[in-house]
Design the sequence.
């Protein structure tokens, strides 16, 4: 088994597994964030549950952090190995003749996502961890009201942040445009090469980032104060 | 037609190479690309210069020798052909054509456009065979039922000519289309089952050892492969390796 994950194919399988987890995570994340547009109360309730439930906090959250770190570290390792496998660079190389832009630039779309994740952690995750586990305030309250919705709206008042989010999510869409079906192929399934999953993957890679973009724009433009 | 050629010249494996410009005139559109190269070489020999070294053998698309990276694509802009099958009618009078060797760390340049593809041979030797007793008591092939579907897919995989276009095209210099085809042609048949687990493990290990890159499923190999080897073969290889690991 150890040998398997040291092989080129084993690494790809691990890459795909972590990617599947991330894609599932993003789906539930979008679902919860969508609540902030339709029902601030529901958003507060669910946020409080996710933020204080021990199963989410101490089982799912570590798995998520591991998956993210694993995914981009392995992404870098594979990229370096692939660069080493190249010979002298071609004087003329027509990549567009045989492959999509997003498939050839996974590392760059991934890098933008990574930069986003850093920003996102500074924005939401560190303050959250600070309030809950350093300050020790698990109540989720601020001036007697749930603070989550208010904090979210506050963050999206800054146009620079909204701009950074929009750009990052476009790059996420490009990452997924190739990544979604690629992950099936890496897992040894030909399903990703068939029409149904390709359509589904396309829909996923457009709708999911668009959802996050709409939420950011909604709070910036419409829910402005 | 009259053409400008930009060709990679490199005296031997240890010297540094560079792109050199040449002119050829009165090239017929009915010529194959290699015949055009023959015209150039005749010209070079007549003027006392060193002809451009390039690999070729069958000149009918079956030996896989004629490795050339033409205008940024393995075997040039046409689909489903090797360089020897590439017609000059794919080009226009006055065109500039860039001709480079197949590039990959595992395919070192020997001279000019000739590269060393022995890494493929070593991968084959690691498991790309079945051990059949040929001492006269071989089983009659027809006694093994094989579905039409499996037979067709195995035959499709077996059409790989080991040309290396997949590696040359791949941005990761991955050999997975080649190895996927070589694993699949046996994985699909009953004769391949006995050694199936060892085969895929040994061939993948050798592929990694040779320094080929990791597939990121861009699909460029499938597009440039002269034999239309399908990416499904890579998925099958991945499945075979997983099966062999949990076995
Ligand atoms: C943290 C920053 C990220 C980086 C640096 C990154 C980098 C990469 C790279 C280089 C690949 C290609 C590797 C390969 O195919 O072998 C890849 C594949 C992939 N990534 Fe990411 N990625 C990041 C985040 C994400 C996120 C958040 C998701 C989830 C939505 C994701 C989903 C995928 C998928 C689905 C694949 C295809 C897996 C496969 O082909 O086996 N990535 N990533
Ligand atoms: S898979 Fe296609 S491109 Fe690769 S070596 Fe075989 S015939 Fe050539
Ligand atoms: S010379 Fe044999 S395939 Fe081109």
Sequence:
């Amino acid at each position: 088994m150890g040998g398997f994950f040291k092989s080129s194919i084993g690494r790809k399988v691990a890459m795909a597994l972590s990617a599947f987890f991330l894609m599932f995570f993003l789906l539930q994340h979008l679902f919860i964030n969508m609540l902030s547009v339709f029902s601030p109360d529901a958003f507060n309730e669910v946020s409080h549950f996710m933020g204080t439930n021990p199963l989410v906090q101490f089982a799912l959250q570590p798995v998520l952090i591991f998956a993210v770190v694993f995914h981009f570290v392995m992404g870098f390792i594979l990229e370096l190995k692939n660069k080493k496998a190249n010979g002298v660079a071609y004087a003329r190389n027509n990549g567009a003749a045989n492959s999509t832009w997003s498939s050839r630039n996974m590392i760059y779309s991934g890098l933008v996502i990574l930069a986003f994740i850093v920003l996102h952690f500074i924005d939401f995750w560190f303050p959250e961890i600070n309030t809950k586990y350093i300050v020790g305030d698990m109540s989720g309250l601020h001036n007697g009201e749930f603070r989550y919705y208010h904090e979210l709206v506050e963050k999206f008042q800054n146009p620079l942040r909204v701009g950074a989010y929009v750009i990052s999510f476009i790059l996420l869409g490009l990452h997924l445009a190739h990544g979604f079906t690629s992950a099936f192929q890496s897992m040894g399934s030909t399903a990703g090469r068939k029409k149904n999953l390709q359509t589904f993957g396309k829909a996923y890679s457009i709708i999911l980032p668009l959802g996050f973009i709409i939420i950011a724009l909604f709070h910036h433009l419409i829910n402005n104060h | 037609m009259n053409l400008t050629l930009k060709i990679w010249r490199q005296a031997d494996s240890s010297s540094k190479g560079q792109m050199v410009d040449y002119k050829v005139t009165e090239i017929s559109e009915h010529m194959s690309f290699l015949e055009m190269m023959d015209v150039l070489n005749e010209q070079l020999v007549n003027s006392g210069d060193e002809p451009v070294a390039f690999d070729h053998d069958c000149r009918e698309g079956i030996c896989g020798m004629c490795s050339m990276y033409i205008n940024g694509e393995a075997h040039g802009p046409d689909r489903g052909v090797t360089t020897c099958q590439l017609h000059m009618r794919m080009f226009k009078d006055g065109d500039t054509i860039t001709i480079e060797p197949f590039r990959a760390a595992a395919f070192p340049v020997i001279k000019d456009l000739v590269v060393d593809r022995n890494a493929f041979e070593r991968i084959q030797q690691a498991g790309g065979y079945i051990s059949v007793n040929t001492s006269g008591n071989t089983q009659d092939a027809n006694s093994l039922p094989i579905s039409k579907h499996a037979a067709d897919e195995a035959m499709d995989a077996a059409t790989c000519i080991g040309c290396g276009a997949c590696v040359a095209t791949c941005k990761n210099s991955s050999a997975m289309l080649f190895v996927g085809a070589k694993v699949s042609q046996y994985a699909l048949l009953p004769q391949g089952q006995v050694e199936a687990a060892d085969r895929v493990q040994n061939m993948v290990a050798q592929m990694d050892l040779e320094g080929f890159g990791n597939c990121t499923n861009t699909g460029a190999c499938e597009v440039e492969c002269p034999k239309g080897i399908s990416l499904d073969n890579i998925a099958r290889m991945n499945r075979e390796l997983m099966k062999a690991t949990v076995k």
Q: What stands out?
A: The pocket of iron/sulfur cluster (ligand 2) is lined by residues B 160-166, 177-178, 181, 225-227, 229 (CB under 6 Å).
